[in-house]
Amino acid sequence: MRWHAGLAGLAASMAIAAGAVYAADDSLVFITAKYRNRAELQTIASHFQHVIVDEKRHTVQVEASPDDILALQRAGIRVDVDDNATRRMREAETAMAGKGEIGIESIPSYSCYRTVEETYATMDALATTHPNLARVVDIGPSWLRSRDPGAGYRMRVLRLNNSATDATITSKPNMVVFGSIHAREYTPAEVLTRFGEWLVSGYGIDSEATWLLDNFRFHLVLQANPDGRKKAESGLSWRKNVDNLNGTCSTNAYGVDLNRNFPFRWNSASGGSSGNPCLGNYRGAAPTSEPETASMLRYVVGSPDSTGVYRGGVLPDRRGDATTTPAPSDYRGMFIDLHSYARMVLWPWSHTSTAPPNSTALRTLGRRMAWFNDYSPRQWTGLYVADGTTTDTVYGLLGAPSYTIEMGVSFFESCSTFEGSTLPQNLNALKYAARNLWSPYNYPSGPDTTSISISPTRVSAGTPVVVTARFDDSRFNQSQGTEAVQQIASARAYLNQRPWSSGATGFAMSPSDGSFSSSAESASATLSTSGLPIGRHTVFTRGTDSSNRNGAPAAVLFTVAGSRTFSTSTDVTIPSTGTATSTRSVTGIQGTAPASLRVNVDIRHPNIGDLVVDLIAPGGAVYRLHSRTGGTTDNLVTSYVRDASGVNANGTWQLRVTDQVAGNAGFINGWSLVMSY
After folding, report:
1. Are 46 and 272 in contact (CB under 8 A)?
2. At 306, phi and psi to the nearest 5?
3. What is the DSSP string of 233-285?
4. Inter-residue contact 176 to 301 (CB < 8 Å)
5. What domains can you pick out in the chain, each with its CATH number?
6. Which of 11, 233, 425, 661 is most buried, judged by most C-beta within 10 A?
7. What pLDDT, on a 0 to 100 scale, did the predictor assign at position 52?
8. Residue 103 has what pLDDT?
9. Residue 65's Cα: distance from chain center in Å?
10. Rounded to whole angstroms, how far apart are CA atoms 675 and 650?
């Protein structure tokens, strides 16, 4: 690192660093700014918003333009340009510039990150392939789309949940997560997309993904600023949306900072946002002035009724209007906004240094999540002041636990760093957060279940199984203060019961070392399987500490072996160029359908090459069995095997046969499902 004292020297240095990619007056460089007090830190942080702070050295690291640096120097703040970091950034920009204009697929030199179009295609594919688990919700237009139906994007939510369990689990908590509301932050959208993919692809296979989707709903706004993101995909350091109606700004300076445009305490804090349309933290002409903000707010929060209670959003309003009124401790659900790259876990308030009324519980959960990503956990104003933010709005209006996670090491983070550390660390933080959804203000105070296993994993009914788990009360990030760590006092296992359900009793687990006497303990329980139906069964475990606080549960799956056949012989006519549907109800199976579901069909038709045959599972998942093959061969009497482990076994199954060629009719003579485990 070299100190550049004068403006002329600074400009010359930046010209050298920029090389042939940008002119010196346009290029970004990586800087370290030295602050002497909290006021100077606020000046720096409010200007850039996402910074890496070293409180011991009183330094801030960030990418900056020449105008940014001049503003800091005029404020009396010393600035160093990190030539090595700048050179690496410039090399990446050169590689991107050499690839030409960004398109629908792939970001040049950043293949691990999906474009807006690729992200939306992933959402559509998940919803098409797993309709019982995923759906895409259109919540409104982006700014460009609101101005021109042929431009911009629709704002979309990936909603994940096992709809087959809705009837029996009627009060599912909701988890809402935003990604990349600031356009240049590549990592949040991709982390969130992969979190959604893990939930869906793991259903029926991964114990954790399965029980989370069975019991909770997830609402993932993967691209919270799609218009701006499209600009950032070209390599521009674009932060805001693309609203250009608020004043005369340079080519790359217009737009509204969506995370200063939310309504709670909008424009209320000195230095918390800017009224200058050309600055990075411009708050907009009015709260919720931007269509992106309005759409996300309406979806998550809803609208106030005549009494001021917000209704119609996916998260409930359970907090009074006064800033000192806490949400009840039994609040269910959570909100998280993913950003990059200050490596922090932040909770409200952002607009004032006053602690929020649920500060103790917010801090405890924040320190738990920060254990997984090793980020600094703190109230937002421990860094700098900001108003009109997502986290203040969701917590302030509803009382929902709300967090901002600042992840990664740069806006345009390399794929090697992203996939090697940022992605796994923050996936684990999100998974932990999800396990607390039933009681996020309480469970983090209790011991976490850090591992769980069962043996054997496949048994005949009557053969006992042994579940083993480890419980740990100490997994807090204590870098910004200390959470009390308690001894484990007890642990219980619950067979096909949710630990939080009324009447759930479970079975006492025995400590592996003979006594519960430390903050981390392993324990086990032997469970009888006598009388259990065939299928996949779930065992939950949960630990309790010496303060009688229950921790977040975990779960594991095991299979009771056996086979059952469900058949129907009722004839159903297949009309020429028409569709016939035959149904069969399945009951008495536990959990999901088997990975090798056998489907036997007896379809009478003179030309099986005219036919398309589908099996439709409860919840709507479609498995193609036959598609216009066989030519003029008559009658389709055969068997198929499909992996149906991602859908529930019980419910109404359908065999759908479509005749796509005129001239011949037929009928479904019968069919059956063989469920073997």
Report:
1. yes
2. -65, -20
3. TTT----S-----SS---TTT-S--GGG-SSTTTT-STTSSBS-TTSTTB--S
4. no
5. 2-97 (3.30.70), 116-435 (3.40.630.10), 447-560 (2.60.40.2550), 563-676 (2.60.120.260)
6. 233
7. 76
8. 57
9. 32
10. 11
Identify the CA nearest to 349 among candidates 287, 284, 393: 393
| Dihedral sign, Cα of residue 106, residue 108, residue 111, residue 114 | negative
Tell me the one-letter amino acid at 183: A
Beta-carbon-side half-sphere exposure of residue 392 (alpha carbons within 13 Å): 28
Q: Is residue 489 within 8 Å of residue 516, measured between CB atoms? A: yes
Structure confidence at residue 69 (pLDDT): 86
Strand residues in 457-519 grouped as ranges (E): 458-459, 465-472, 488-495, 507-508, 510-511
Hey, what are 260's tokens? 């200063």
Residues of the chain short of pLDDT 70, as ranges, are: 1-27, 46-50, 88-106
Cα torsion for 339, 343, 348, 349, to the nearest 10°? Answer: -100
Summarize pLDDT for 498-543 with one digit per residue, the tens: 999 999 999 999 999 999 999 999 999 999 999 999 999 999 999 9
* Strand blocks (E) in 298-447: 302-304, 310-312, 334-339, 344-347, 376-379, 402-406
Q: Which pLDDT belongs to residue 557?
A: 97
Bridge partners (DSSP) of residue 573 are 667
Q: Quick one: pLDDT at residue 135?
A: 97
**Region of 169 on the Ramachandran plot (φ > 0 left; ψ -120 to 50 alpha; else beta):** beta
Handedness of CA 67, 73, 78, 80 (dihedral sign): positive
pLDDT of 104: 64
Identity of the residue numbered 156: R
CA distance 232 to 207: 37
Residue 116 contacts residue 226 (beta carbons within 8 Å): yes
CB 388 within 8 A of CB 259: yes
What CA–CA distance (Å, rounded) separates 52 from 206?
A: 36
Is the bond preceding residue 456 a cis peptide, omega within 30 degrees?
yes
DSSP state of 422: I
* Pairwise CA distance, residues 50 & 44, whole Å: 10
| Model pTM score | 0.88
Angstrom distance (rounded) from CA 16 to CA 29: 11
| The predicted structure's pLDDT at residue 53 | 80
Per-residue pLDDT at 10: 41
Which pLDDT score is estimated for 49? 59
In this structure, what token pair is assigned to residue 233?
């995909």
Residues, the chain, total? 677
Partners of 592 in beta bridges: 648
Give residue 384's pLDDT.
85
Alpha-carbon gap, residue 77 to 69, rounded angstroms: 9
In single-letter form, the type of residue at position 538 comes to T
**What's the pLDDT score for residue 58?**
87
Coil/strand/helix, residue 318: coil
Kindly give, in sequence order, each residue whose CB lies less than 8 Å from that of residue 181, ignoring residues fewer than 6 positions away: 224, 225, 258, 259, 337, 339, 390
